[in-house]
Specification:
Length: 258
């Protein structure tokens, strides 16, 4: 099951990174046309976290697994990992900036929360890097400080998206809103949840010390990879419906039927 889990995980990761890249670039191009900060922040957030940042970290991780001597990791992998983390962390800040700008503009508590989470993220990462995390990739105490932010900010995004969706539904019922636009907030909330789910599930083996092909036979690492792959594929599908809704999906909100 290890090979199947790893294959699904790699395929879903590649699809996720590519889709996120297309979405991020599309949002940035839209921002260039409209001059709107919301599209710029979200475009940068998606591009830097899910595509460039995560993509570089995965390239480094895959490269390490192909080494003949895993204990002798070339310095280039540490540099790739470092670049990936930096881009990813900047992207996280952009997404939180998007949440504050769109949903909580003017709310002091939201700005403070984003600031505290950003400081925690960078402080935890700096400690992790100083402990050799960029070279060995082994989760340790400081890594979980980083995960505390990376694994929770999508829940904030989801909560705000669902709340806004509920408000938009009321406007649609009064004939003052577009149902397809309202649905995009629902989809974005769901994508945020599947993203958070994949982040936590893929880190379960690190918490328990389980590895692929573990002799205990429990298969925990393989199961987590399979679930992460499934969540990644689900996220890709939701992204596609959100930003590239096909005709059959648009018809669900036009009253024309399928």
């Amino acid at each position: 099951m290890g090979e199947l889990a790893s294959s699904l995980y790699l395929v879903s990761t590649a699809a996720f990174a590519l889709t996120a890249g297309v979405v991020g670039i599309r949002l940035l191009l839209l921002s260039a046309e409209t001059g709107q900060m919301a599209e710029r922040l979200l475009g940068l957030g998606v591009l830097l976290t899910a595509s460039l940042g995560y993509g570089l970290m995965m390239i480094s991780a895959i490269g390490r697994t192909m080494l003949a001597d895993p204990s002798a990791v070339p310095a280039v992998y540490a540099r790739i990992t470092t670049a990936g983390w930096i881009l990813h962390n900047i992207g996280v800040m952009c997404v939180m900036g998007f949440v504050v700008h769109v949903f909580r503009r003017g709310a002091v508590w939201a700005r403070l929360l984003a600031l505290v989470m950003s400081i925690t993220l960078w402080a935890g990462w700096a400690i992790y890097a100083s402990q050799g995390g960029m070279a060995n990739g082994v989760p340790r105490g400081s890594y979980w400080i980083v995960l505390a932010v990376v694994g929770t900010y999508p829940f904030w995004t989801a909560a705000e998206s669902f709340a806004y969706y509920a408000r938009m539904r009321k406007r649609v019922a009064l004939g003052l809103g577009d149902e397809l636009v309202a649905n995009r907030f629902l989809l974005w909330g769901l994508a945020s949840l599947t993203t958070a789910g994949s982040i936590w599930v893929v880190n379960i083996p690190g918490l328990t010390g389980a590895t692929i092909g573990e002799p205990s036979g429990s298969g925990l690492a393989e199961i987590c990879l399979l679930l992460t792959g499934a969540l990644g594929i689900a996220t890709v599908g939701i992204y596609w419906l959100t930003f590239f809704p096909p005709v059959w999906y648009r018809r669900q909100f036009s009253g024309e039927g399928v």
